[in-house]
């Protein structure tokens, strides 16, 4: 909501003509596709925590460029960071949840993620962005201080709380697998983020 609700108004207030605003807003699409193509490599190279943290950093950096009211060209140059954030964090979360959830609960886990992000998250974000734009009419750059702080707090909490704890696994037929209580093959890895814990995924 901060991106699509506040940034167009901000760019127009900084002197960008309305005809150029949609083009500026779409600059994140190319980097998003490139980041999606690199996601398997990023997960292998950086791991789950590194990949998701990279997405949070990209989002925070984009808002920092807007909050400090740097030259308009710099603010526009930071737009591609949105695509990196979407690919590494939003899509990365979907991949992580799909890999950690038992097969019978994957659909429910993905639905819960959608509700929390596109549902509750967007509703609260829209209300917050609208209120801030009302109070910061004369200094729209201050609107973006809030998502900067939120992303920074999320990054600290995530990096300190994320755990990927391997459990005992058994080699069977050339694959590492652990047997669940119901006889299903599981990856034998539980993920912990602060007080939130997901059970190990199967197969």
| Net shape | globular
Widest sheet: strand order?
1-5-6
Give the number of helices: 7
Which segments are poorly predicted (pLDDT under 50) over 5 or more consecutive residues?
165-191, 196-203
Could you give a short account of the major beta sheet? 3 strands, antiparallel
Distance from N terminus to C terminus (CA atoms, Å) equals 37 Å
Give the helices and strands as they follow along the chain: HHHHHHHEEEEEE
**Beta-strand content:** 5-15%
Based on CA atoms alone, the radius of gyration comes out at 20 Å
| Mean pLDDT metric | 82
- Please give the share of residues in helix: 55-70%
Structural class: mainly alpha
Describe the overall structure.
- The structure is a single chain.
- With 203 residues, the chain is mainly alpha-helical.
- It contains 7 helices and 6 strands; from the N terminus they run H-H-H-H-H-H-H-E-E-E-E-E-E.
- The strands form 2 sheets. Strands 1-5-6 form a 3-stranded antiparallel sheet.
- A hairpin with a 2-residue loop joins strand 5 (189-193) and strand 6 (196-198).
- It is globular, with a radius of gyration of 20 Å.
- Residues 165-191 and 196-203 have low confidence and may be disordered.
Describe the protein's topology:
Elements: H1 2-13, H2 21-25, H3 29-67, H4 72-77, H5 80-100, H6 106-135, H7 145-161, E1 162-166, E2 170-172, E3 175-179, E4 185-186, E5 189-193, E6 196-198
Antiparallel strand pairs: 1-5, 2-3, 3-4, 5-6
Helix pairs in contact: 3-5, 3-7, 5-6
């Amino acid at each position: 909501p901060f991106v699509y609700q506040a940034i167009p108004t901000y760019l127009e207030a900084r002197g960008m003509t309305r005809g150029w605003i949609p083009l500026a807003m779409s600059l994140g699409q190319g980097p998003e596709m490139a980041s999606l193509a690199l996601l398997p490599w990023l997960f292998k190279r950086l791991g789950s925590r590194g990949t998701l943290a990279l997405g949070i950093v990209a989002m925070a950096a984009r808002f920092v460029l807007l909050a400090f009211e740097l030259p308009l060209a710099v603010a526009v140059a930071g737009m591609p960071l949105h695509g990196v954030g979407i690919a590494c964090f939003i899509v990365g979360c979907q991949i992580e949840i799909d890999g950690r959830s038992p097969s019978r609960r994957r659909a429910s886990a993905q639905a819960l993620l959608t509700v929390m992000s596109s549902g509750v998250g967007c509703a609260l974000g829209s209300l917050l962005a609208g209120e801030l734009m009302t109070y910061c009419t004369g200094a729209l750059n201050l609107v973006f201080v809030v998502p900067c702080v939120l992303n920074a707090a999320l990054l600290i909490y995530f990096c300190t709380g994320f755990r990927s704890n391997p459990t005992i696994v058994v080699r069977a037929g050339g694959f590492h697998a652990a047997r669940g209580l119901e006889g299903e093959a599981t990856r034998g890895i539980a993920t912990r983020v602060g007080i939130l814990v997901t059970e190990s995924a199967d197969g």
